[in-house]
Amino acid sequence: MSGFISFVGSGPGDPELLTLKGRDRLQRAEVVLFDDLSSGRMLEHAGEGAELIAVGKRAGRPSAKQEHVNALLLEHALAGKRVVRLKSGDPGVFGRLEEELTAIRARGIAHEIIPGVPSANAAAAAAGIPLTRRLTARRVQFVTGHDVTGDLPTDIDLDALADKGACTVVFMGKRTFPRLAAMLIEKGLSPDTPALLAEDVSKADQRIVRSTVAGLAKQLSEEYATTPALIMYGPLADPE
After folding, report:
1. Is 35 a catalytic residue?
2. Nearest to 69 by CA among 36, 100, 44, 48
3. Residues 110 and 123 in one domain
4. For this structure, is 81 an active site residue?
5. Most buried in the list 38, 80, 91, 208, measured by CB within 10 Å?
6. Cα(191)–Cα(36) distance, rounded to whole angstroms?
């Protein structure tokens, strides 16, 4: 008899931002497959005796292959276990949720998806700004800063990303942002467009760097670390 899988969004990292429903599933889980960014204090919510399995992926570090993660989900669910797949942020935002859903649906495994606080929303809150701004930022767009090879995607819509009326959030883009910024400026985006870098959002060592598109591109071209971060640019509201 197959078990049940709960895909739980843990939010950006602060255990207090975990939803009540997500915490309930963690407490009742027999097996927890967790992302690197969903580790630490977040796992204190797991029930006593739960098997905790790290399956996270981080740039520049040894990471679990997606096929291995899929196989683990199937193995434990088919053994009749209550499984939690704990993903950072929201499971449906650049979390490879679809690949895992495809694998378990092919075997008819019952499941649910529990949303989490998206890291972009948490970053905006930490910076004291909204993601939308009346009259000047009527649209929000999320984009990944790298493709499966780790490089800047070749099929990005530069016209959309250079839209001065949009607030753009770049996930996993610290290494590629200098090149992206140059392309956006060439497309007509002002180099003085407000931008910020949000690192380790909601954690004790959180860092918010306010700059411009050109300024942040220069900074990231000179210094790069694998610290998890988001980049936001556009008509961001002044927190003052």
Report:
1. yes
2. 100
3. no
4. no
5. 38
6. 34
